[in-house]
Design goal:
iron-sulfur; binds iron/sulfur cluster; globular; metal-binding; metal ion binding; rSAM_sf; TIM Barrel; alpha/beta
Length: 310
């Protein structure tokens, strides 16, 4: 099926993050598209402030390359290097990218200005661009605060809310299957890239259990993940297309018994209780330790600090 995509023009394409965080190293973020055809039921951009500037449907930022050249030239001149997070609000390797090649064009500009990148995707199409990513890795200038913490200027990260194909079909109907993502991770690792598995969001009572998590961690480890980052579900908005409304609609259809428990877990908040989140992180931390996989993009880091070391 041919995917319809509108063309829009933007004034800015590179967003400077207020705080470069230890989770995604995102000094900057960059999204070549507005909207995302992977259509995940839980997509946090629908109903939250992160989707505020998105136009309805799927659109490509057609002048992004031209704007990016101006913005990166300016940043490079001031030596304001920082990791560019690709895919914070849309997947950079949507099916339309196969013909449009706008992500590829943006990566070539990033290479020209020697910025490091962190690509977050669910798609095997990233394999097409490993040639450019390899060159970026060789040329990227790391910001001084990361020079001792990072061994490379390219991170390839793959997101999973589950590795179960049936669950994925329900909650991520348009995205490549978990086995396809695992295979792609393995290939990136084989080609020498730093590979991350991003378990976001873990679905309450479905993919957040000890058993399910252990299976996920085992699978990503077997397929080359160097690190795992994980966090729980967030639900925003009351409109029909907002993720909270859509999530409960899908739960009602497939797992009606989980609706009251999930509502109780969230109460009036967009996130589950603090206690739930601590227990979830503890499970991830313990299992990661068991399988010898770190919880940080840094070579010797741990996003949980020493929370659970005792
Ligand atoms: S891939 Fe990411 S941006 Fe796209 S719909 Fe899914 S959660 Fe949203």
């Amino acid at each position: 099926m041919v995917e319809l995509v509108r063309k829009i023009k933007v004034k800015s394409v590179l967003n400077k993050q207020k705080h470069a965080d230890e989770w995604f190293l995102s000094g900057y973020s960059l999204n070549p598209f507005s909207g995302c055809s992977f259509n995940c039921v839980y997509c946090y951009t629908r109903g939250s402030k992160y989707g505020e500037n998105q136009v309805p449907g799927l659109a490509v930022k057609i002048n992004a390359p031209e704007i990016l050249v101006k913005q990166l030239k300016n940043r490079a001149r001031k030596r304001e290097y920082g990791f560019i997070a690709f895919g914070s609000a849309t997947d950079p390797y949507l099916p339309v990218e196969k013909d449009l090649k706008i992500t590829r064009e943006l990566l070539m500009i990033i290479l020209r200005f020697h910025f490091p990148v962190n690509i977050l995707t669910r798609s095997p199409l990233i394999l097409r661009d490993l040639d450019i990513l390899e060159k970026i890795g060789k040329k990227a200038v790391l910001p001084p605060e990361l020079e001792n913490k990072m061994e490379t200027g390219v991170v390839t990260s793959f997101s999973f809310s589950t590795t179960d194909e049936n669950l994925s079909r329900i909650f991520e109907p348009g995205a490549p299957s978990p086995p396809e993502r695992l295979k792609t991770m393995k290939e990136c690792k084989k080609q020498g890239f730093l590979v991350g598995a991003i378990f976001m969001p873990l679905l309450p009572f479905l993919s957040d259990t000890e058993e399910h998590l252990e299976e996920m961690i085992k699978k990503v480890k077997e397929n080359g993940a160097d690190f795992i980052l994980a966090s729980g579900l967030t639900l925003f908005g009351e409109e029909p297309q907002d993720c909270k409304t859509r999530y409960y609609r899908v739960l009602e259809e497939h797992f009606p018994e989980l609706v009251p428990k999930t509502r109780a877990l969230f109460g009036n908040s967009f996130a589950p209780s603090r206690r739930y989140q601590q227990e979830l992180h503890h499970r991830v931390f313990k299992l990661s330790k068991k399988y010898g996989i770190r919880n940080s993009v840094y070579k010797e880091g741990n996003v949980y600090g020493n929370w659970f070391e005792k």
